[in-house]
Amino acid sequence: MENTDILNEIMLNARQIPLDYQERTLDILKGMAFTKKILLNSPSKIKEQENNKTTD
């Protein structure tokens, strides 16, 4: 499943809920995207920090 498929499914289902809940859902999705970004970038950052500690 592609990201656009997931986004389209979320948008279709979000129309059926009240605006307050839509805003909360958007906040949750933003948090999930942020967490994914951190987790995907984290291993390279950890390796860099470990290398910096051993060279210091």
UniProtKB/TrEMBL annotation:
Protein name: Uncharacterized protein
Organism in which the protein naturally occurs: Clostridium beijerinckii
